From TrEMBL:
The keyword Secreted does not apply. GO terms for biological process: protein K6-linked ubiquitination. This is WW domain-containing protein. The lineage of its organism: Eukaryota, Viridiplantae, Chlorophyta, Chloropicophyceae, Chloropicales. Residues 168-200, 289-322, 319-353 form the WW domain. It comes from Chloropicon primus. It comes from the Eukaryota. Residues 1-21 form the signal peptide.
Length: 362
């Protein structure tokens, strides 16, 4: 069922009651005089994610509301181990950086205190910092280290290495549908539907000085190499009945347009079709631009010039060795040859680093 239909059904049950409203939390129904009496913090403590989601959708609840003690809804959900509730709150924009006003603790510290790996992963996936300290000088990382919570420390190591992108759903998990003039997302594995944009579907591509920069508008992460969520090819093959979408990082293939792709990139990839890179010297094939030819010259804000590799994310001041091959003509041999002005290497055949060409068809 589409999200709007679910919301409308829930709204009817919540608002149509005159004398009282009964909202089930999976056990005995909770009695409320009216929908105005629904307490957000009580819903969080009970793990009543369904009703909480409806009220958040109706904007009856501020997702970053604090209790008198200074804790937010997200703090309570993390403390109580309510992973589903944490996910709902994050979907509706709960801020992971907000602190408990009485202790200075973050919701991530609350999750680590509870030794909850699932919630820790959800919060790291929304860019919660493991190093923010409370008023006593304790951070999520320092507590996990002190208590020797190996699983949680491993998650933090993954966060350190890649950031929130490390915890995104696999490419192909989400599909996009429309109801009226609104888009919603459906999980292809669980059939879950949601209005909010999943983190793996929130990547935008921007260009500066011929270099692509990738920005996730949910997690606020910026990276310089293409995320797995955007590594798709539109494969048109005469041996196939219909074109397919292929993620060349994960080797996943599907017929539906991936929900991770922004609209402008869908059109661009469809125009590209089954293009790929082929190395005429080695016979190798690659779906994305090979690292040997992915160097770009960049001018920094001070006018300095350096080289950046779009594929690997590495940068350096010196000219890349792979870019130092020059084609010359040998009068003695009466044919062209190649030499590298940095290494002094020479060859009559085109060297592998510069032997890449783009092909249009499989």
């Amino acid at each position: 069922m589409a999200p709007l239909a679910l919301y409308l059904l829930a709204v009817w049950f919540l608002l149509a009651a005159v004398g009282s409203a009964e909202v089930s939390n999976g056990e005995a129904p909770i009695q409320y005089k009216s929908y105005h009496d629904l307490d957000a913090f009580e819903l969080v403590r009970e793990g009543n994610s369904e009703v909480l989601e409806q009220l958040l959708a109706l904007k009856e609840i501020d997702v970053n509301r604090r209790e008198a003690s200074g804790k937010t809804l997200l703090h309570y959900a993390a403390e109580k181990g309510q992973a589903v509730v944490v996910d709902v709150l994050l979907q509706f924009g709960a801020k992971v950086e907000l602190r408990d006003r009485s202790t200075g603790s973050t919701c991530l510290l609350a999750a680590v205190t509870a030794e909850d790996a699932e919630i820790t992963m959800l919060l790291l996936g929304h860019n919660a910092s493991p190093d923010d300290r409370n008023s006593a000088g304790v951070s999520a990382r320092s507590l996990a280290t002190e208590k020797k919570y190996g699983e949680l420390l491993t998650l933090m190591d993954e966060f350190d290495a890649s950031g929130p992108v490390a915890f995104e759903d696999r490419p192909g998990t989400w599909l996009v549908f429309s109801e009226g003039n609104r888009k919603y997302y459906q999980n292809a594995d669980t059939q879950e539907s949601r209005w909010s944009v999943p983190t793996s579907c929130a990547w935008l591509r921007q260009s500066k000085q011929g270099i692509y920069v990738y920005y996730n508008f949910v997690t606020k992460q910026v990276i310089w190499t293409r995320p797995d969520s955007l590594c798709w090819k539109f494969i048109v093959n005469k041996n196939q009945e219909r074109p397919m979408w292929f993620n060349y990082r994960t080797k996943h293939m599907q017929a539906e347009v991936p929900g991770e792709l922004p609209g402008e990139l869908v059109g661009e990839l469809m125009d590209e079709g089954s293009t790929f890179w082929f190395n005429e010297a080695s016979g190798d094939m690659a779906w994305e631009e090979p690292k040997e030819i992915s160097w770009r010259k960049v001018v920094d804000e001070r006018g300095g010039v350096f080289w950046f590799n779009q594929r690997t994310g590495l940068s350096q001041w010196d000219d890349p060795v792979d870019m130092a091959w020059r084609e010359e003509f040998s009068q003695k041999e009466k044919k062209h040859y190649y030499w590298n002005e940095y290494t002094g290497e020479a060859a009559f055949g085109k060297p592998e680093p510069i032997a890449w060409t783009m092909k249009k068809e499989l």
